[in-house]
Amino acid sequence: MTQQEPAGVKEIHVLWISEGMSCDGDSVSVTAASQPSLEDVLLGLVPGLPKVHLHSKTLATESGDDFIAPYHAAAQDKLGPFVFVVEGSIPNEETHSEGYFTSFGNDPQTGEPITLNTWIDRLAPKALAVVACGTCATYGGIHAMAGNATGCMGLADYLGWDFKSKAGIPIVNVPGCPVHPDNFMETLLWLLYQVAGKNPMIPLDEQLRPTWLFGKTVHEGCDRAGYYEQGDFACDYNSPKCQVPLGCWGPVVNCNVPKRGWIGGVGGCPNVGGICIGCTMPGFPDKFMPFMDEPPGGTLSSGLIGNTYGPLIRQLRAITNRTVNKEPKWRCRGPALTTGFDPHMRVDDKTRSQE
Question: Is the pLDDT of residue 181 over 70?
Fold first, then answer.
């Protein structure tokens, strides 16, 4: 196996640790995926995938030492190829002299808890791919807000933004609070095909997000974007119009949820009356607070559009709408044919007139 081209594998494990600082909401969200579903992947119903074994406490049938055993085996290079998924932000365990913020299982030799940081140190360098699931794991999220006592950070902050997996793959960030179920499963599917030797290197942006999922803004896929473009803004949350003056950050936030819907193509924050608060962004939540206040620049942009460009465009479109919202005058009953049809015009005359 080279660091550029992972050798195709026939069987692979997914080791999922959600003991980061989190609410486990990402694990719960992913169970709702349908493109593909977890069940389809685990049952081998997706053509061309290696056999996948998922180790996750949310869906585990084992418990105690039996559940932890594969993680210990992977740390000792005895498990086989695996993808490492981290959920939850990474606390800075170097800031205190005793105790720990979060742990996962106990050391078989000492009986002491093993911190999340230790597991990351042991497993990340041995994984074919390393995935941060949800905004807490990708960029720190809620737990990494200014003033927090844990020094929380994202996985790339902990391992380094230039980290490469055993197969030469950068950390893959799939943000969202919680992560969009199909965004995550689609990303995992790409990586499983890649380590099976059937996909090229996953395309990522500067923030290590899959480019095809996070290359556009909320605004570009929003059901309400047309209202913004013609300066028609909502005054309260009961309105179907653009919500930028109410605090929506959609024009500058990289996220595909309004276009994709939430579950089964339905939902997405602005689509159902909620503002975008930027939960997929590296600066969340600090740079997007206070919520429900008009974003910086929003007053200027919405003012320019709402007071000048928008009203003019609405008037011009209303004129055009009135003219095209009527049938042509010749569609009527009566003895006279008023369509302009000339029964005496020959074919060659029609051709010459068209030329």
Answer: yes
The predicted-structure confidence for 86-118, as pLDDT tens digits, reads as follows 999 999 999 998 999 999 999 988 999 999 999
pLDDT score of 256 more than 70: yes
Could you tell me the two tokens for 154? Answer: 């994202």
Q: Is 113 exposed, middle or buried (0-12, 13-18, 19+ CB in 10 A)?
A: middle
Q: Is 3 exposed, middle or buried (0-12, 13-18, 19+ CB in 10 A)?
A: exposed
The dihedral region occupied by 268, where left means phi > 0, alpha psi between -120 and 50, and beta the remainder, is left
Please answer whether residues 130 and 84 qualify as being in contact, where contact means their C-beta atoms are separated by less than 8 angstroms: yes
pLDDT at residue number 317: 77
By mean pLDDT, which of 42-51, 58-67, 203-212 is the weakest?
58-67
d(CA 59, CA 54): 8
Average pLDDT for the chain: 90
Q: What is the dihedral of CA 54, 56, 62, 63, to 10 degrees?
A: 160
Q: Of 60-69, 109-118, 295-304, give the lowest mean pLDDT range.
A: 295-304
Quick one: three-class SS letters along the chain?
CCCCCCCCCCEEEEEEECCCECCCHHHHHHCCCCCCCHHHHHCCCCCCCCEEEEECCCCCCCCHHHHHHHHHHHHCCCCCCEEEEEECEECCHHHCCCCCCCEEEECCCCCCEEEHHHHHHHHHHHCCEEEEECHHHHHCHHHHCCCCCCCCECHHHHHCCCCECCCCCECEEECECCECHHHHHHHHHHHHHHHCCCCCCCCECCCCCEHHHHCCEHHHHCCCHHHHHCCCECCCCCCCCECHHHCCCHHHCECCHHHHCCECCECCHHHHCCCCCCCCCCCCCHHHCCCCCCCCCHHHHHHHHHHHHHHHHHHHHHHHHHHHCCCCCCCCCCCCCCCCCCCCCCHHHHHHHHC
